[in-house]
UniProtKB/TrEMBL annotation:
UniProt xrefs under InterPro entries: Endo/exonu/phosph_ase_sf, Endo/exonuclease/phosphatase
Species per Swiss-Prot/TrEMBL record: Flavobacterium suaedae
TM stretches of this protein: 21-37, 43-67
Name of one Pfam family that matches: Exo_endo_phos
Protein name: Endonuclease
Domain Endonuclease/exonuclease/phosphatase residues, every copy: 97-294
Keywords: Endonuclease, Hydrolase, Membrane, Nuclease, Transmembrane, Transmembrane helix
Spans annotated as Disordered: 309-331
GO molecular function: endonuclease activity
The keyword Transmembrane helix belongs to this UniProt entry's keyword annotation: yes
Superkingdom: Bacteria
Length: 331
């Protein structure tokens, strides 16, 4: 189902459970091998089909294991004035544990806190962050697409945009590092392909690819953060990386599954931080849950002028460009 390039949620939902399908396929292979007594043609067809499926799934998830090639290099020497740390957290709008959120923020102590699914209740419940984070962009909404952006670092030329849907905001801002270096951060939370949201992935894919174009055109270093409602290994995310020229620090380090916090077997990497090749990685980790259906993700990166000559982004070919243009033109 996931191989079919159809935007309907019934197809796109199968992009998510790659690891789960791999585990289930291993179990199926063991069961068929143990219980199927007749080693006839049907037995070998089943064994062959499951084995092919396992190899394909392994190919998809391997880059996100510790055995895969790291797309982002680890910084060797810490340069605090050139570094920025970010906490990304979909708080789940109907979660009332604002104190738990504040405790997690204080524990992680990031330079930037990006809270998603935040309404007026969450704006009021986290207002004490303004003391420690004097720069902020607050866009509370009651439709589960509100955003609260708190920063210790100076923000400049920021704006709130509605790229595809009139009630789904995104935040775009220059951030000035302690060294004085300016970078760009784009905070996004597109709608997922799901019943009750959008029955197609059209809006999500379109927003991601428009942001990819914006990031590609930027002259300054870029970071894209948020709950993208898409998994790290999906075709759309891979296309986003190709079109934007950004890197995924998760590759070669682990899955960092952020959703669903309450169901260990149904967890996927939905919350992301993609960075331009000007950055190297200081740290990336999953933080503790405080009652949301998402785990927060923490990332710290360091700007280095020569880093882009040491790291290689993915490149789009003519088919990728054509597909991206088609997705952006859909209504």
């Amino acid at each position: 189902m996931s191989l079919i390039r159809n935007d309907y949620w019934t197809f796109r939902v199968f992009d998510y459970p790659r690891l789960q399908k791999f585990v289930l396929s291993v179990i199926c292979l063991m069961l068929v091998s143990y219980f199927y007594s007749k080693h006839n043609i049907l037995f070998w067809v089943l064994i062959g089909a499951i084995s092919i499926n396992l190899l394909y799934l392994a190919y998809l998830i391997f880059p996100f294991t510790i055995f895969g090639k790291k797309q982002v290099i680890k910084a060797k020497n810490s340069i605090p004035d050139q570094s920025i740390s970010i906490m990304i957290s979909n708080v789940y709008q109907y979660n009332n544990n604002t104190n738990g959120c504040l405790q997690e923020v204080n524990k992680a102590n990031p330079d930037i806190v990006f809270l998603l699914e935040t309404n007026k209740k969450w704006e009021e419940g986290t207002k004490e962050l303004k003391e420690k984070y004097p720069y902020h962009i607050l866009v509370p909404k009651e439709n589960t697409y509100g955003m609260l952006f708190y920063s210790k670092l100076e923000l400049k030329d920021y704006k709130v945009d509605y790229i595809v849907e009139d009630d789904v905001p995104s935040i775009h801002s220059k951030v000035i590092l302690k060294s004085g270096k300016e970078i760009i951060i784009h905070g996004v939370h597109p709608t997922p392909p799901a019943p009750g949201e959008n029955i197609k992935s059209t809006e999500r894919d379109k927003e991601l690819l428009i942001v990819a174009d914006i990031a590609k055109e930027e002259k300054l270093p870029v970071i894209v953060i948020g709950d993208l409602n898409d998994v790290a290994w999906s075709h759309t995310t891979k296309l986003f990386l190709k079109m934007s020229g950004l890197l995924d620090p998760r590759r070669g380090r682990g899955f960092f599954n952020s959703f669903h916090a309450r169901y260990p077997f149904l967890r996927f990497p939905l919350d992301h931080a993609f960075i331009s090749p000007d950055f190297k990685l200081n740290a990336i980790k999953r933080l503790s849950n405080f009652g949301s259906d998402h785990f927060p993700i923490y990332i710290s990166v360091q700007y280095e002028a020569k880093a882009d000559s040491e790291q290689e982004e993915m490149h789009a070919d003519s088919d990728d460009i054509q597909e991206a243009e088609e997705k952006k033109s859909k209504e």
